[in-house]
């Protein structure tokens, strides 16, 4: 139950609240995934699927424990030490994502915004990683897997890894076009992940 409550809180803070704050401040909807069949639109659908899959898997774990065996648990790696590590990773993720979103300020988007000009953010967390928000999300996915190790949380990590790496490359191409040499210089100094 605690894990489900944390997941809901996580989504509310880093997606819903952050989106509402940006929209209220700028009038811009930060959700930029389109409904087209291009790579960006498709990736938005994959992100949505992963989010619903997380809610379903954690919901089963929290409220329908008798169904948990159908998620193909990896019972042999369930132990109290990994459970403590999972919570450390989940809280670390929330901190990294929240701080990174705060440092992006009005430039933060969910996806690629080709309609509204933003500035290139290179300070704070972005001086350590070009993608600290995605890094934080991956940390959360690993934490979730350690909390409830099963075939579906492993699938979440796998799909997220592919989808996030695809999104990063799409965003890098956009940033190269948008900021040209400024982005290229930044990319030389700061690694993609860490």
TrEMBL record:
Pfam family, one: PEMT
UniProt key word Transmembrane helix: yes
GO molecular-function term, one example from the UniProt record: transferase activity
Record's GO cellular component terms: endomembrane system
Highest taxon listed in the record's lineage: Bacteria
Protein name, per record: Isoprenylcysteine carboxyl methyltransferase
Gene source species: Polaribacter butkevichii
Subcellular localization, as worded in the UniProt entry: Endomembrane system
Keywords on record: Membrane, Transmembrane, Transmembrane helix
Lipid bilayer topology: Multi-pass membrane protein
InterPro entries per record: Phopholipid_MeTrfase
TM segment ranges: 6-23, 44-62, 82-100, 133-159
